């Protein structure tokens, strides 16, 4: 019987999840159908419950429903608890399970590029949900120090306060975007600057060796600046594929190779 999956969000038209999951299925021989569901902003819970009530096997959750999905779950993985957001849902023994595969998707994408995370110093620009979701997997992969820079310093400080106990083996630090300086193995842009078309100006005193833009398919002043400095850089397409592979693997028990889809 064909297994039923979906991605839910609002808006949802831009989602590439169906093409990714159908490509993984073709590669691994899994019989599935994966569709997009546009949920009303106030209707996530009803739509999600209805999907699982009608034999849905698994569901991906995108903006703006990841926090609502988190609240809906009976069981959560460790990384979902830390992220306080869920992007992957499934039913098991009558209970709704939730995971957050975004951070692991980012780690897999970075590792596929052969960028070393062991003992690394990482700077993350932005202190929103995207940043919260990737700290724990980055530290699990070997990051030694993570500095979170945000326009509003208090928000970065709050995030460090929330997460420091979850990653005792690493140093977390908060700074304002106006305090960017020092040397880092990797800078990750988790701000919405490329989505809103805002320019993010990186000072000369900031030295870095790799640049990762979480957004994909949009012009990015962050990536432009990395290229001007001739620093290895990439957009977030690999992270998108990586988080999808992780979800596919949870649901179907088989893991496609990330490098086959980049």
UniProtKB/TrEMBL annotation:
Record-level Gene Ontology MF annotations: NADP binding; shikimate 3-dehydrogenase (NADP+) activity
Residue ranges occupied by any SDH C-terminal domain in the UniProt entry: 236-258
SUPFAM superfamilies: Aminoacid dehydrogenase-like, N-terminal domain, NAD(P)-binding Rossmann-fold domains
Pathway listed: Metabolic intermediate biosynthesis; chorismate biosynthesis; chorismate from D-erythrose 4-phosphate and phosphoenolpyruvate: step 4/7
Stretches assigned to coiled coil: 146-173
Keyword line: Amino-acid biosynthesis, Aromatic amino acid biosynthesis, Coiled coil, NADP, Oxidoreductase
Swiss-Prot/TrEMBL catalytic activity: shikimate + NADP(+) = 3-dehydroshikimate + NADPH + H(+)
Annotated positions binding shikimate: 15-17, 62, 87, 102, 212, 243
Entry-linked InterPro entries: Aminoacid_DH-like_N_sf, NAD(P)-bd_dom_sf, SDH_C, Shikimate_DH, Shikimate_DH-bd_N, Shikimate_DH_fam, Shikm_DH/Glu-tRNA_Rdtase
Domain of life: Bacteria
Assembly with partners or alone: Homodimer.
PANTHER family the UniProt entry points to: BIFUNCTIONAL 3-DEHYDROQUINATE DEHYDRATASE_SHIKIMATE DEHYDROGENASE, CHLOROPLASTIC, SHIKIMATE DEHYDROGENASE
Functional note: Involved in the biosynthesis of the chorismate, which leads to the biosynthesis of aromatic amino acids. Catalyzes the reversible NADPH linked reduction of 3-dehydroshikimate (DHSA) to yield shikimate (SA).
HAMAP family: Shikimate_DH_AroE
Protein name as annotated: Shikimate dehydrogenase (NADP(+))
Source species: Acinetobacter gyllenbergii CIP 110306 = MTCC 11365
Recorded name of the encoding gene: aroE
């Amino acid at each position: 019987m064909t297994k039923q999956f979906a991605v839910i969000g609002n808006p949802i038209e831009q989602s590439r999840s169906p093409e990714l999951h159908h490509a993984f299925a073709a590669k691994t021989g899994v019989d599935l159908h994966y569709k997009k569901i546009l949920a009303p902003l106030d209707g996530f819970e009803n739509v999600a419950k209805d999907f699982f009530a009608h034999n849905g096997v698994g569901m991906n959750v995108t903006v703006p429903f990841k926090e609502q999905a988190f609240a809906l779950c009976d069981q959560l993985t460790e990384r979902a608890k830390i992220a306080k957001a869920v992007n992957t849902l499934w039913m098991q023994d009558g209970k709704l399970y939730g995971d957050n595969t975004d951070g692991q998707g980012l780690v897999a994408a970075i590792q596929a590029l052969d960028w070393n995370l062991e003992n690394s110093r990482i700077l993350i620009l932005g202190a929103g949900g995207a940043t919260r979701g990737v700290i724990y997997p980055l530290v699990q992969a070997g990051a030694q120090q993570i500095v979170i820079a945000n326009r509003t310093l208090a928000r970065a400080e709050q995030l460090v306060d929330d997460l420091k106990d979850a990653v005792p083996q690493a140093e977390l630090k908060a700074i304002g975007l106006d305090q960017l300086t020092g040397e880092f193995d990797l800078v990750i842009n988790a701000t919405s600057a490329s989505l809103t078309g805002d320019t993010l100006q990186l000072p000369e005193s900031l030295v870095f060796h790799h640049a990762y833009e979480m957004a994909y398919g949009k012009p990015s002043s962050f990536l432009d600046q990395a290229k001007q400095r001739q620093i290895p850089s990439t957009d977030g397409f690999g992270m998108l594929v990586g988080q999808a592979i992780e979800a596919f693997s949870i649901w179907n028990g088989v893991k496609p190779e990330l490098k086959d889809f980049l």
